[in-house]
Amino acid sequence: MTKTSKYALLRASVAPAILGVAMLSMPAFGQEAPATSPQAPEAQGQAIIVTGSRIARPDLEASSPVAVVSAEDIKETNAVTVEQILATNPQFASGFGQSSNNPGDGSATVNLRALEENRTLVLIDGKRAPSYDTSGAVDVNSIPAVLIERVDVLTGGASAVYGSDAIAGVVNFILNDQFEGVTAEGSSQITGDGDGAIYNASLTAGLKLGDRGNLVVSGGWSKREGVFFGARPRLAVALDSFDLVSSGGSSNTVPTAFDVPGAGRLQVTPGGGLSDDVQLYNFNPVNYAQSPFERWNLMALGRYELTDNIELYGRAMYSDVKVQLQLAPTATAGFLFNIDPSNPFLSDAQRAAFFDTAANPGLQINDGSGVGDDPTARAGTSVIGIRRRMIETGGRIEDFHTKNMQFLGGFRGDLGDLNWDVSAQYGQSKKHSVLRNDLSFTALQQALDVVAGPGGAPACFDPSNGCVPLNVFGFETVTQDALAFVLRDAIEDTKISQFIVGANIGGDIGFLQSPLATAPAAFSVGGEYRKEKGRTAVDPLYASGDLIFYGQGQNISGSYDVKEIYAELKAPLIQDRPFFNSLGIEAGIRFSDYSTVGSVWTYKLGGDWAPMEGVRFRGIYQRAVRAPNIYELFSPVVAGTGGLTADPCAGTVTPQVQAVCIAQGAPAAAFGPGGVSIIPQPISGQINIFTGGNPDLSEEKSDTWTAGVVVSPPQLPGFSASVDYFNIKIKGAISDTPPSITIAQCFNNPDPTSAVCQSIVRNPVDGSLSGPTFVGVPSTLGNVGSIKTDGVDIVLSYRGGEKEGFHYSLGFAGTWTRNYKFQADVTSPAEQCAGFFGPVCDLEPMPKWKHVAEVNLAWNNINLMTRWRFIGKIKADSDISGPEGIVLQTIKPFNYFDSTLSVDLDDRFTLRFGVLNLFDKEPPLVGDTTGATATGGGTFPNTYDVLGRSFFAGATIHF
């Protein structure tokens, strides 16, 4: 066997010594090392590359815990997308995925330790994967599941080895480049209600190039059908979280509701009357619980030994993904409009309510001086907030079409006792987004400014551009012509490119050997250059901010590059001695020179000690960084929406609070005797915010350390256990201060003259934080936050011996999150998020305890797997708890069970059948006024199963 042929074994070999854990054909989380296939005799002693280090030595232990998801686990769960592969791993929190409808863009991301997607570095075969948008996140659905041999999950910082973004850890997708023959796979899945079908098909062919190389080509197709929350009766109605009985929908409703100064909110009744009993709009039925999706993948992998010491390798990857999301129909959103008294659409009751100042002195009648949204408002018009849901549109449709490609090539080989690798890669992502069926504010102004024309017929005061009068003052009065005049679509195109060139060399240092060790130290040194470019272009209408719900699109353009050098050392200190079966240390350092943040150092120092065979202690400290991405650096400040459960200006307020609310723009008439306010609470838990980038951002810094023990006693063959403590502290976290924090900073010590209170702008008609684009709470980016999290990972596995064709295996993986504390800035309190849900931390629920357990029973060619997924109890956070809090203040523990049966009919043909959510467990009903649940069917669809029991069947045939 030639020296370079060892590279052909890197992904097909097993090296129990690497992590001191026996390799088992076990559930994914029960493994802590590379692949699970039996090791070929010639592979003994050959180099194995483990995620978390660039040093390939079979006798050196790793100090960082690495969990593994195998290819078999992917098939057992019928995972057709990469997001499904990792979804049950207790170390991961919810990222974007198949239930991400609002917000969402069709991508699927990974989120280790709930530290957000851009703090988890994604690799493909140890090389950085390209991002799909300006946030730097990677859409893992661009990676074809069929070619994944395993997924390595390293938790804790790894910037000294891999560079920026590896704060939470690394997810490394190892692809199967040793495939030979032809394999066809197919599967389908459907829910117990007969909807939500998922289809998957792939064809993979591999060719051995003599004795010197391999070529693998694979193509795949996946399709997922959409399911609306309306298809699940439990989730079909938007309920108020504070009673779970009354509607928690939107006051942008139908028939129209009007915000009338001095009179509050009034809704149209049959016959043209007005009532203060406003019936809210139920938006749940028209939001997706599972978004539709279609993807095509094509990948080619190859390697060829040019000489006995040099190997050429390469990879080409392409994916085409189409996703459609749907939100509730657009609405007028309570914006202020000037209503003319001669408008023929007005009933007598409406005309009196809008213009009779004798009955209502609080009315705002324009005097021609520019009061209201329109500085050219005519005298005699009345300023009215209009809340009309345009159900005639059928909904806001968001179409996303993303094309990803990556090309990688390199040479690797041996130089004496050293191994080297030189490579270059280019990745590109293009995303075309069409956001349909929104309303133009200026067109609405024009279409709602209706006067009596010739013969008393309705006419636009300004007839330009073919204006059609819009009637929102009755039932079913909106015509298609009027709708066509005010409706608009927005277009956004994003292009991201990444270029990387790198080289490293490593091997043994023969002269550096401890006198108490049997092997020398090993090293790796290298350098890398990386260039990231990003551009988002929006059409002129979207850029203008004229769209009511999509807001203002951002034209973003920017780039940065980084030059890096790094070094890594592993050294055995003591080997094969009493109480020191092995003792070793590892260290690494990286210097990075960014064109944006300048010079950055990252480093690591760790060690491991095995006092005897089968017991090993390990620990490592790492300094990791995350440099600001293109969006954070170059995006302009624009209006958007953010979460807020309760507005301090609503309800009964103190004189000090009232003074602040009025100073922020609320009308004095909104407050009655005793401080009783008619200012409404945030609609669906959302308010206006102002967000944007900051070119002066610096890098985030984190200090991470892990310490643990691995036990695999030879007296108990087949058993292994590991317990690891993790502690991550992030300083200078890039954060846009959550609106709840800004509100608290102002109203905890209400002062109309304070800078934080003056930064908040209120709707001049109803005093809310929604409406015109100039209304809202600032939320721009800065290195102002900090995050601290710590906890324990536990992994247990056991494989019983085989007897008469029968064997079994058991596996367990659990994560206990002791703390997750987020501090928005130095003046804010540190909020505890572990064990809570709600708007304080603006996260999906974060249980303190999660685990997954598996039992595998195998008899000859039949295998039965049963999996138990557990999500611990979670409590409502301080914003929504207490005597006046929401009804469901504690979500009880949730248990899910899945089962898969696979049968090998022969050496070529395998059938799989499975049931997910075996007992049809329904999600918790929290209601729609807790912020994060507002468009999630009253629950948390990225954490809990919202579709119920599902069945799948699949087949594999190999030629």
TrEMBL record:
It is found in: Cell outer membrane. Residues 61-170 form the TonB-dependent receptor plug domain. It comes from the Bacteria. Keywords: Cell outer membrane, Membrane, Receptor, Signal, TonB box, Transmembrane, Transmembrane beta strand, Transport. Residues 1-30 form the signal peptide. The keyword Membrane applies. GO terms for cellular component: cell outer membrane. Residues 393-918 form the TonB-dependent receptor-like beta-barrel domain. Pfam families: Plug, TonB_dep_Rec_b-barrel. The keyword Cytoplasm does not apply. It is a multi-pass membrane protein. Belongs to the TonB-dependent receptor family. This is Outer membrane receptor protein involved in Fe transport.
